[in-house]
């Protein structure tokens, strides 16, 4: 079956909750993907940063196959020999003490919310049922009913209520507002260090340092959702590290933790915080399974051993500089950190989507986010020559 037939079949049987570019991928390796017609493309989306290590990284594939030949799933009713080594490595990379493994990002965010509330009642002694969590305007934390309940994006909420109470909204990047909204019942502040889905938005420098101070002063858990920005994407292992003294109380990790092959997510924190759980409080059938754990451990090894955060910083800095030097009437701003870059298209030039469609015809796969922004987030293994090829094609489309 070729492109049109496969798209037609997919559209016929699939709920229409996505609007993909009209390409059908059947093969991938490293930073490249091939469609069913045999055309080759540079993947500049990396499955929303779940492919930081590239497609089918040899070390990750080797682990996947070896572990698949031993044991894949035990459930948490029994121990397995892969979960401990993963969590130990994860705590080392995160400089934390304990972790709770889940599968998808949204599940890890839900886990963070439950953890913060439990900590609030047990440790901070917030009166029963009164815990408050503060989140940011234009946040993206996933798609479960609790999470979309505190989204400020009308489409994410429309028709899905009623929603979970207990959330308050402040502007992203405004620590003064955060300070005003904190009450004695506030248990946590959840924030993306850089807002991805909202259009690659960076807070003012020093914002997270202030957040850290406010949270410490008021005994509020500072929770960073690093599902997209973490694991090297922005040129540091975690995006909060761009600010001094801004270490959160809890990190939420997902996407690239699964090495591009298997969904693995986790909440990583201190003994005081994750110590609130006792058997039966929370769980997941697939969470911490041996196949996912083995894959995730190798996914972390690859990030560290191949210095992918450093490569992201180096190649991303060059890419940003080169893109900013393109003079185009269509571009309002080019911004980002590491290989997490957004090109904002002027409203007078229409939406970002037609630009993404033109890029696709030239062999560069990028996806628009929030109408006006082309997001560029290639796998972190990308090299200078490949970046140059990408820039040449972007220049053609923008000028
Ligand atoms: C992708 C993402 C999520 C949700 O992850 P899923 O695996 O799609 O559930 C949550 N937070 C952020 C910042 C994300 O980018």
Can you list the strand order of the major beta sheet? Answer: 4-10-9-8-7-5-6
What's the end-to-end separation, in Å? 36 Å
Strand segment tally: 15
Order of helices and strands: HEEEHHHEHEHHEHEHEEEHHHEEHEEEH
Averaged pLDDT: 97
Features:
399 residues, alpha/beta, Aspartate Aminotransferase, domain 2, Aspartate Aminotransferase, domain 1, 7-stranded mixed sheet, 4-stranded mixed sheet, 14 helices, 36% helix, 17% strand, binds pyridoxal-5'-phosphate
Describe this structure in words.
The protein is α/β, with parallel strands linked by helices and 399 residues long. The protein has two domains: 58-305, 3-Layer(aba) Sandwich (Aspartate Aminotransferase, domain 2), CATH 3.40.640; 308-376, Aspartate Aminotransferase, domain 1, CATH 3.90.1150. It has helices spanning 3-13, 46-49, 58-68, 83-94, 105-122, 145-149, 154-157, 175-181, 207-218, 271-274, 290-305, 308-324, 353-361, 384-398; strands at residues 25-29, 32-35, 40-43, 98-102, 132-136, 167-170, 186-191, 221-225, 250-253, 265-269, 331-337, 340-345, 364-365, 367-369, 373-376. The strands form three sheets. The protein has a seven-stranded mixed sheet with strand order 4-10-9-8-7-5-6, sandwiched between helices. Strands 1-2-3-13 form a four-stranded mixed sheet. Helix 3 (58-68) packs antiparallel against helix 11 (290-305) and helix 4 (83-94) runs parallel beside helix 11 (290-305). The radius of gyration is 21 Å and the shape is globular. The relative contact order is 0.17. Bound molecules: pyridoxal-5'-phosphate. Pyridoxal-5'-phosphate binds next to helix 5.
